[in-house]
Design goal:
Residues 5-103 form the DUF8010 domain. The protein is α+β, with helices and mostly antiparallel strands. It contains six helices and twelve strands. The protein is 28% helix and 34% strand.
């Protein structure tokens, strides 16, 4: 489908599988979710979704997009990925959903590394959060007081920054960390970066972003 005016071209089956897993996990959080795909230099695509925790999630795969920034419904994208043309890696993303995306994306550069947190500690926090959520959740999900609770504090260069539980939940819900402590090496970490307006957490399989200040601006 080289002549297609709109589409995604992936660099092989491994990239298709990565994007499929990312999209499926996002759909479990919200059946009507939209995936935003942006091409970046070097033959890579950055996929973005809103997780429902007022946290954005992203994953990088190899490929290209036409146009260079497009939005697709998760269901349509998954169908296209399942039917990917093996000859040129073409994926039909379905009808354009650009108008369904809400909010801004974080910048590509400008983040400063603050600290690393052991991945096993993050998994432990996630399990504690799940247990608390079972006790206190309503039909609307975990209470905001639990999601907003700062469960990790990092300090660097005189700056202290708290990581809320909603970021921990987003990391584990999107599968960005192995799902069991036994699958995590003792030296595996998640990397915490920040800039004045954004918090960024990089894990083995993807990255989450939380707007600092007024997070509601992200999804408004």
């Amino acid at each position: 489908m080289i002549g297609a005016e709109r589409g995604v071209w992936l660099g092989g089956s491994s990239h298709r599988d990565d994007l499929s897993t990312f999209t499926e996990r996002a759909r479990r959080l919200d059946e009507a979710t939209v995936v935003r795909l942006r091409e970046r230099p070097g033959g890579v695509i950055v996929a973005w979704v809103a997780t429902g925790f007022d946290v954005l999630a992203s994953r990088v795969v190899g490929g290209r997009v036409r146009p260079a920034d497009l939005c697709a419904g998760a269901d349509a994208l998954l169908s296209g990925l399942a039917a990917m043309d093996g000859d040129d890696g073409y994926v039909d993303p379905g009808f354009g959903m650009d108008s369904a995306w809400r909010g801004v994306l974080p910048p590509d550069t400008g983040f400063v590394h603050l600290d690393d947190v052991p991945a096993r500690a993050v998994l432990d926090l996630a399990q504690q959060g799940v247990d608390l959520a079972k006790e206190h959740s309503s039909a609307h999900g975990p209470p905001a007081s639990l999601l907003d609770q700062e469960v990790v504090a990092v300090t660097a260069g005189g700056e202290s920054l708290g990581i809320p539980m909603r970021c921990v939940f987003a990391l584990t819900a999107m599968g960005f960390l192995p799902q069991t402590p036994e699958s995590v090496g003792a030296d595996e970490v998640v990397r915490v970066r920040a800039m004045p307006s954004w918090l960024r957490i990089d894990a083995r399989f993807g990255t989450v972003y939380r707007r600092r200040g007024d997070p509601a601006v992200v999804l408004r």
